[in-house]
Amino acid sequence: MPPSPVDIRTRIRLWRRRVAGAGLGVFAASWIAVFAVGQHGHAGTSTGSAAQPSPAQDASAQAAGTQDPYTDGGAYGDYSGYSDPYAGQSQPSQSSQQQSQAPLVTRQS
Amino acid sequence: MSVATHQRQEIHLELFGGRAAVVVEHGDRIAARAALQRAAARLRQWHARLTRFEAGSELSRLNRDPRATVPASPILLALAQAVSWAGALSGGLVDATQLGALERAGYDRSLRDIADPAPTGPGAPSGIPRDARPDPRCAWERVRADRVTGVVHRPPGLRLDSGGLAKGLAADDVAALLGEVDRVAVDCAGDLRLGGRLPTARPVLVADPLGDGHVAELTLPASSAVATSGVTRRRWRRRGELGDDDFAHHLLDPATGRPAWTGVLQATALAPSAVEAEVRAKAALLSGPEHAPGFLPHGGVLVLEGGRVLEVSS
């Protein structure tokens, strides 16, 4: 005897639920995996403790200067339309992981 | 109590006639590396667009363009805006329209290509120290950038030198670009800017203009900048007016168009931004020992003829 239209609709509904459930499961598992990897990488590669800046330091930096017309959000415009002619030509010449905060040096260029 | 952790990564590039470096401290190694790549790409854009030693750069094209109004990229617009701003801030001492005089002094190619660089030292190009003065024509006043329409206005034939302004602008821009990392330090061939979302003050050593050590240590406030200008490094030999060996350097007296000799060997300026630090350092050097402290309201260091070191507090 052929299935009734009601049976077909029920089967389709059940199939949709299974597919949706499986999709949600995969999605949730992916995020759990991403979070776990991120936590592991964070702990495994950290090399120092970050000190929070004191409010006084920030305030003094903000108050230190005269009005600078070039600090409006720090951007000079939309660069997205400009290609980098040197893109891909070189990798960082040096990359290091150091724990100490070595003093910076200012010198004549 | 949660303790944030970070790690440090850095990148070094040969740009702006010297070395540029970006140091990032961030909790996520991959994000830090991506940030460095973005910084490198942006710095290369600044260099490629504003170098005057490449005929095809946007700055070279602007300098050759016969029109009074020229379409410009955001980078060139920023430089054009900085030219008039720097002139006003320095009373005309930092004059980026002196390109012809700079070329006549011998700086017509990258210093790497100048065959006979002068040795580092305190020698004077013109003997008697004299404060630099502004060029009375004030050509920098006629340079305008219109960000709305994206054009630069300047009299045809008036050529611009990106000089130190490009370095300062680039350092500020990249520090802003990397604002999401914990901490960043951007060094564009001597113009140094701190930034990041958790900025901290950092100690900065001021290099000795006559040797390999340092002459002073400053505290660079969080998110601020420092720059150093001097006459003992970027110099070259030339035949003097009396037929003897002389040397020239890249800091000109705008009034004479000749290398300035003011009695200040090196000036270091702190400022809220790298471009301002650059302008203040250069103006301090050009203005001479008496007026230099007036250009250092945020603090700085002067090294005078004879090696005397003068720290200027904010």
Structural descriptors:
heterodimer, A: 109 residues, mainly alpha, rod-shaped, B: 314 residues, alpha+beta, 3-stranded antiparallel β-sheet, 6 helices
How do the helices and strands line up, and which of them pair or pack?
The complex is a heterodimer of chains A (109) and B (314).
Chain A: H1 5-45, E1 48-49, H2 55-63, E2 104-106
Chain B: E1 5-15, E2 18-26, H1 29-50, H2 58-64, E3 69-71, H3 74-89, H4 99-104, E4 144-146, E5 151-153, H5 163-177, E6 183-188, E7 191-195, E8 202-207, E9 214-220, E10 225-230, E11 235-239, E12 245-249, E13 252-253, E14 258-259, E15 264-271, H6 274-287, E16 300-304, E17 309-312
Antiparallel strand pairs in B: 1-2, 2-6, 3-5, 4-5, 6-7, 7-10, 8-9, 10-15, 11-12, 13-14, 15-16, 16-17
Helix pairs in contact in B: 1-5, 5-6
How many beta-strand segments of chain A?
Answer: 2
Low-confidence stretches of chain A: 39-75, 78-90, 93-100
Q: How far apart lie the N and C ends of chain A?
A: 90 Å
The biggest sheet of chain B amounts to: 8 strands, antiparallel
Q: Describe the sheet with the most strands of chain A.
A: none
Look at the structure and give the mean pLDDT of chain A: 56
How much of the residues of chain B is beta strand, in percent? 25-35%
What is the averaged pLDDT score of chain B? 89
Order of H and E elements of chain A:
HEHE
Report the principal-axis shape of chain A. Answer: rod-shaped
How would you sum up this structure, described in words?
The complex is a heterodimer of chains A (109) and B (314). Chain A is mainly alpha-helical and 109 residues long. Chain A is built from two helices and two strands; from the N terminus they run αβαβ. Chain A starts with a helix and ends with a strand. About 53% of the residues of chain A have low confidence. The model of chain B has no long low-confidence stretch (mean pLDDT 89). With 314 residues, chain B is α+β, with helices and mostly antiparallel strands. In chain B, strand 1 and strand 2 form a beta hairpin. Helices cover 25% and strands 29% of the residues of chain B. Chains A and B meet through helix 1, strand 1, helix 2 and strand 2 of A and strand 1, helix 1, helix 3, helix 5 and strand 6 of B. Strand 1 of chain A pairs antiparallel with strand 1 of chain B, so a sheet runs across the interface.
